[in-house]
Design goal:
It is a single chain. The protein is built from 5 helices and no strands. With 92 residues, the protein is mostly helical.
Length: 92
């Protein structure tokens, strides 16, 4: 999952700049039960998606989605340090 850290940090910055982290977080929370299905769709679409992005990236994303905590991990990375810190403060 380390290969995604830089990319997700850039995406997180853009989302925070446009104030979309809450919306994306809600969408990822709603999609969490569908993670394995999304992974299977990526595996099937990998040959076609390989025309637009490296196949290794597609496979890596599919493996993330197959993992039980994959979408939660994506959500955490996209939330950025500010939102993750706020969630931690709410639990206390």
């Amino acid at each position: 999952m380390a290969c995604w850290d830089g990319r997700l940090a850039r995406w997180s910055h853009r989302l925070r700049k446009k104030r979309l982290t809450g919306l994306v977080g809600a969408l990822l929370d709603a999609a969490e039960p569908l993670g394995p299905l999304g992974a299977q769709m990526l595996w099937v679409a990998q040959p076609t998606l390989g025309l637009f992005m490296p196949r290794d990236d597609v496979a890596s994303l599919a493996r993330i989605l197959e993992h039980p905590d994959g979408l939660a991990w994506l959500h955490e990375r996209l939330a950025g340090p500010d939102e993750r810190h706020e969630k931690h403060d709410d639990r206390e």
